[in-house]
Amino acid sequence: MGRYWLAGRLGAGGQGIVYEGYGEAGERVAIKVPRYDSAESRARLAKEAAAAQQVASFCTAKVIEAQVNSAPLYIVSEFVPGPSLRRVVAESGPYEKDALRRLAIGVATALTAIHQGGIVHRDLKPDNIIMGPDGPRLIDFGVAREVGPTTSGPIMGTPGYMPPEVFSGRGASEAADLWAWAMVVLFAARGKDVIEEGDPAAVIGRVMEFEPDVYGLPEPLDALVAAALARDPTERPAAGEVLLRLLGHGGQAPLRRGDDLLERGLTQAGALTGRSEPDLGAIAEELYGELTEAERATAPEVFLRMIDGDELRPVGRDELPDSPAVDAMLTVFGAAGLVTQAGAAYELATPGLLHAWPRLRDWVTGNREGLPVHRRLAEAAALWNEHGRRPADLLHGSVLDRTLQWAATAHKDLTLRRREREFLDEAVSLARTRARRRRLVAATLAVLLVVALGGLGTAEYLRRESSRQRDDALARELALRAADLRQSDPQVAKLLSVAGWRLSPELPETRGALYDSLSQTAVSVFLDPDYTAATAQNLSQDGRVLVSVDGGTARIWDVTG
Known about the structure:
The model is unreliable at 142-155 and 250-255 (pLDDT under 50). The chain starts with a strand and ends with a strand. The protein is an alpha+beta fold. The chain has 5 domains: 5-78, Phosphorylase Kinase, domain 1 (2-Layer Sandwich); 85-269, Transferase(Phosphotransferase), domain 1 (Orthogonal Bundle), CATH 1.10.510.10; 280-366, Arc Repressor Mutant, subunit A (Orthogonal Bundle), CATH 1.10.10; 418-519, no CATH class; 528-561. It has 20 helices and 17 strands. Helix 3 runs antiparallel to helix 9 (261-269), helix 8 crosses helix 9 and helix 19 packs antiparallel against helix 20 (508-519).
């Protein structure tokens, strides 16, 4: 969605769906997408973005960007980690005493800031209150309007939290938010909606006849909730007045309007936080930490094979390394819902993981140049295998050259599977056969030319043949030298193998040397320069530290440095 990748659905309502997403740097965001693209939807989304941007960020989710004039429509806002008030009450039960007072202060603080910004929320309810790490925050300004004498228009919102005057056609003012505040406080104290959902007509009827019961609420909440539920909106206190009375209660010095109410409110409500859920990256890293060393070693290749640029691709089990460690790793990530399985194919559950998990981003960055080469190789090998391994499906020309060069020197976290190695073997064999045929044709034409020109081209032919023989001899020498250095200097051996193959790709010796390098697991060798026959040596379990002892002297080597 734009420059963000979706990771899952956070919630849905009548107007749209809210998704969890991640930006290019791994930042976690919330993305709201309207259900329908229409002129009305675009206007409503634009008003929501404008309303949220007018409100102080400490009491709501900050809007990062919005696309409201062209499809797809969306609003990207700050992700507030934490559950909704409804979820907290459902899991932990009603709020009591000090916790209830702090909640009332937090919501009243947010309403005060919203009203100071000239906005009426119009849909305050437990689902739209997030218990964030710094206290309650109000979200979803989808039906918010600028403050006027009355904010009229179509009836929008949640009926059980809307005041009677809205259903009488008088519109919603700031007083409507105070009615909803009181209903939220009663919800938190009782553990359930005071006016429960049901048939819309029945719900509206209960609202019109509602008489508040504030029994059991601590002072001064009981009086403030009763006042906020006055049927006449003009008799309800303003959000700032409610906040002033709540902060001035409990033995503290009386507050005046000149005091910084919002700052005091934030301080009081800040201790009332919700349990935040870890993001995808944190979950993936925790799972990675639980893997064995062998399972971790398989993770880069498995995940990289599931990525195609910025898109995801399903990967068959036969395309992955054939080892118990891979199966165990897939089981761990599958049980957590980060990898899905459909038949014999595995796939990342969400594209958001590609940007949410720093370790995966690093793997992709380190292999970015080779990923397209490997992807083309894997897909071509699969197609070749499915079509009966026909020569016509093999790579050739410069594409084959680039693939062989990548496989020999730059494959990093990706290795060749058996099918891919067989595919390259056949491609190289076909290229050699074609080269031999071309040489035979060229030789025949050369003979004919010599005969036709009376031997004028003989000298040039002999020169070329001599050059070819010289190249073949040098290529064989490079292949032999690579074999000598394969254990003592693997990197130089690989380079010599590639150089020999490039000189004479048709020679069995150069082809064999190239594939010996491809299949070699060692990438470097370390020798103690002071080693003698009397030296005793021992290597650490992880293969990183070598200790040599000779004549009472111990030398410790970091063999990976």
